[in-house]
Amino acid sequence: METKIILVDLDLTLLRIDGTISDHTVSVLKQCQDKGILIGFSTSRGTTRIQQYSDIIHPEIKICNAGACVYYRDELIHAETFTLDETHRLFDKTYQVLGEDAEITVDTLNDFYWNRKENKTTQYMAEAKFDDCKNFVEPAMKICVQLSDASKAEEIASVVENCGAVAFSDIPWFKFAPKSAAKENGIKYISEYLKIPLSEMISFGDDFSDIGMLKATGRGIAMGNAIAEVKAIADDVTKSCDEDGVSDYIERNVL
Prior knowledge:
Order of helices and strands: EHHEHEEEHEEEEHEEHEHEHEH
Largest sheet: 8 strands, mixed
Strand content: 15-25%
Low-confidence stretches: none
Number of strands: 14
CATH topology of the largest domain: Rossmann fold
CATH architecture of the largest domain: 3-Layer(aba) Sandwich
Number of domains: 2
Strand order of the largest sheet: 5-4-3-2-1-12-13-14
CATH superfamily of the largest domain: HAD superfamily/HAD-like
Mean pLDDT: 94
CATH class of the largest domain: Alpha Beta
């Protein structure tokens, strides 16, 4: 089957552990684009947190906030959020369950916020704006909370009917987003918009939020560093992110 779209997760997939992209991978993806293959990011990161990588790769497709917003050539073709009321219910419940020390990040369509000014617990928050999430004025696309207790995550999610809670495997955080805001659903919007069947797409991922995407596309490829649950459902396993697993697979099986 001809490959028309290649979709890649960012953290620990396209990006090396140190957050960089190798020159070789950049070159391989450019070769794909020169052949008319569309390159897409499919990431849990918000739109503001992928710009540095977009400036390097220039992807035609951007699926951000784990499917909550979808862009084609920088045109927004799909977006979904919690309502403002749902957003506040989730914040209130988070503080109720975890106390005033709860650590929260929020992605909206155009911004990224964090309720801490210092003592940050993860490297992914350097670009965040400060907001204590007590009087938030925008609907959230995605809310992330520092916790590792799945039962507490479910308790928080329960205050909004359309809220799903998904753990990150590499950091002790949970992501809260509309249940319909999944990477695989974002990919389906692209498929319908461009009239390109899912069978003509390849996707690469490493974590829980990538499982639906890998199942949905014609070929779903797990990274060598992927969690066991991702490898179990993948069509193939490539090298790790630090070994340029994405470009290695593309060179051997696409180019």
